[in-house]
């Protein structure tokens, strides 16, 4: 078995291992990741993808990517393409890319088989009536008045449904199981409905479409899936999954459905409906907005795929749903970027710093490590002059207690360069400081004093004549509460109105002028950032430098 097996309890692996020992499926293991192409994948899907592919890989099997495309009104090729890209971005390669729509003919044929055997019937009632007749837990259902139609009558009506003779919603095909079953899923579920939506693959060939419950298990069986892994909300669907398969002449052994807990994060939502509303209402800039929990949004923000997968693996698989702290995921991102991201200096809120005793026109170059965590990344040359930018909050006219950065008369170290001492300030008409004047000590080149004196602060900077302009987006939580909607029932009521701050007029060291789309860097003292894939010289803050998860764990003891 590979190292991708989680150290956490893995009951799925135990089940698969037992099946192999027993000779079930002749020792073969095949899984699938089955998204509906009605939106973009999110962080919760990353967990499912990791589990599906890891189980297959760890047991020498295969995992397919299969689109459960049975709802033509909501599914688009755009979503198909994005899902394929996201799965591959995470580092997984499907053995095959398949579609439930590939099996529409077979599913229809099997539906006719159910009808001829008296196990399915056409119901003329509307959805609201059918739902009401199902009753509830502890309350018996009511048989449809059409439940006892003859197989011949049902077959005729079903074929006429397929031929487009009836309007949308006029009739449905239902399984004939048990209207008094404790499991509500078994109270004559709908198998087919009339919908004239344009399908992204089959176009307008079909006007009837199978429901998820009729298409899913049968697609598994057609593809020879052995272990059908899904999240806990499908536990109640398993008896129906098994009932449907048991009625049919399957080409392979009946697959086994196994449920595990989904991944939920604090301060976010993963409901496709609500994510779509964020996009459609213009609350975010699209599915790949860096504030979104979509994989495309996380990728644009600079999250490494390896960090996401490592997080999902370390969560393990369990049978109990729980929510994870977003800070914990961020700790994985920070850990990965600390190893891989090169360091650069950037000033996001610039304040001019002029060194008054610097030789006019002189430029020096300092060699600075690209990444102290990886010496193999080498050194870079950084230009230094008498005209610099520093961060506004690195200077204070009246410094508060324990403020060790620059103020009048105080000496600080400029990263890799010299000690400087502020002497006076220049203000605008409103009294705001627009420039700090300072002197430097030529004996402190490289950042150390020959006489051994120490300073309490090291500040980053950029040389004004050599800096390149950029815009930077800073992000906070998209929702202000850990569990959005806990109070009102509507998660969007808890949106953070200050989830993004866009800064213009930022200045970066010259090495960043050639930043590649998506390139991850650490802005020293400021955090990890990623170059936007489409907009040159625009950077997104991926995560800060402070390990908030470590702080949380420390407080928790």
Q: What features would you describe in this structure?
A:
The structure is a single chain. The chain is built from 13 helices and 27 strands. It has 557 residues and is α/β, with parallel strands linked by helices. Among the domains are: 11-265, Rossmann fold (3-Layer(aba) Sandwich), CATH 3.40.50; 346-467, Ribosomal Protein L25, Chain P. The longest helix is centred in the N-terminal third of the chain and has 16 residues, at 43-58. It is elongated. The model is unreliable at 1-9 (pLDDT under 50).
Give the key terms.
13 helices; 557 residues; Ribosomal Protein L25, Chain P; disordered N terminus; elongated; seven-stranded mixed sheet; alpha/beta; Rossmann fold
In the CATH hierarchy, the architecture of the domain at 11-265 is 3-Layer(aba) Sandwich
Content-based structural category? alpha/beta
Uncertain regions spanning at least 5 consecutive residues: 1-9
Question: What's the number of extended β-strand segments?
Answer: 27
Q: Supply Rg.
A: 31 Å
| CATH third-tier fold name of the domain at 11-265 | Rossmann fold
Helical run tally: 13
Give the rounded overall mean pLDDT: 95
The CATH homologous superfamily of the domain at 11-265 is named: HUPs
Task: Note the gap between the termini.
Answer: 35 Å
Q: Could you tell me the strand content as a percent range?
A: 15-25%
């Amino acid at each position: 078995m590979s190292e991708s097996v989680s150290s956490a309890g893995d009951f799925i692996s135990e089940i698969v291992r037992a099946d192999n020992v027993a000779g079930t499926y002749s020792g073969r293991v095949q899984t699938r990741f089955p998204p509906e192409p009605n939106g973009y994948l999110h962080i919760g899907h990353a967990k499912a993808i990791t589990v599906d592919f890891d189980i297959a890989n760890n047991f020498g099997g295969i995992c397919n990517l299969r689109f459960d495309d049975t709802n033509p009104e909501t599914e688009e090729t755009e979503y198909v393409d994005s899902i394929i890209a996201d799965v591959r971005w995470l580092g997984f390669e499907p053995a095959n890319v398949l579609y439930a729509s590939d099996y529409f003919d077979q599913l229809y044929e099997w539906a006719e088989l159910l009808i001829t055997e008296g196990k399915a019937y056409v119901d003329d009632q509307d959805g609201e009536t059918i739902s009401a007749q199902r009753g509830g837990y502890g309350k018996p259902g009511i048989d449809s008045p059409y439940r006892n139609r003859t197989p011949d009558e049902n077959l005729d009506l079903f074929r006429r449904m397929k031929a487009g003779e009836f309007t949308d919603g006029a009739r449905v095909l239902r399984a004939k199981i048990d209207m008094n079953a404790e499991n509500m899923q078994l109270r004559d579920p709908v198998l087919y409905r009339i919908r004239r939506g344009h399908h992204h693959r089959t176009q307008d060939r079909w006007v009837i479409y199978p429901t998820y419950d009729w298409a899913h298990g049968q697609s598994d069986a057609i593809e020879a899936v052995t272990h059908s892994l899904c999240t806990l909300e499908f536990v109640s669907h398993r008896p129906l999954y098994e009932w449907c398969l048991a009625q049919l002449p399957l080409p392979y052994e009946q697959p086994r459905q196994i449920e595990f807990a989904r991944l939920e994060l604090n301060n976010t939502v993963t409901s496709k409906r609500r994510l779509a509303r964020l996009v459609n209402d213009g609350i975010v800039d699209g599915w790949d907005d860096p504030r979104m929990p979509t994989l495309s949004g996380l990728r644009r923000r600079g999250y490494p795929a390896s960090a996401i997968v490592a997080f999902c693996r370390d969560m393990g698989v369990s049978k109990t749903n729980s929510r994870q702290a977003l800070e914990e995921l961020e700790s994985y991102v920070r850990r990965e970027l600390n190893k891989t991201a090169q360091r650069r200096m950037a000033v996001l809120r610039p304040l001019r710093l002029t060194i008054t005793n610097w030789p006019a026109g002189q430029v020096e170059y300092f060699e600075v490590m690209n990444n102290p965590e990886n010496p193999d990344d080498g050194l870079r040359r950084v230009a230094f002059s008498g005209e610099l930018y520093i961060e506004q909050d690195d200077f204070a006219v009246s410094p508060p207690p324990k403020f060790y950065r620059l103020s009048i008369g105080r000496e600080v170290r400029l990263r890799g360069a010299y000690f400087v001492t502020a002497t006076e300030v220049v203000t605008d008409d409103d009294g705001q400081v627009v420039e700090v004047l300072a002197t430097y000590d030529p004996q402190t080149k490289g950042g150390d004093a020959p006489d051994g004196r120490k300073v309490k602060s090291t500040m980053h900077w950029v040389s004004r004549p050599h800096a390149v302009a950029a815009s930077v987006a800073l992000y906070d939580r998209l929702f202000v509460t850990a569990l959005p909607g806990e109070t009102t029932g509507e998660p969007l009521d808890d949106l953070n109105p200050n989830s993004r701050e866009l800064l213009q007029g930022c200045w970066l060291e010259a090495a960043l002028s050639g930043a590649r789309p998506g390139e991850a860097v650490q802005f020293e003292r400021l955090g990890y950032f990623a170059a936007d894939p489409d907009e040159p010289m625009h950077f997104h803050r991926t995560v800060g430098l402070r390990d908030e998860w470590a702080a949380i764990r420390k407080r928790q003891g």
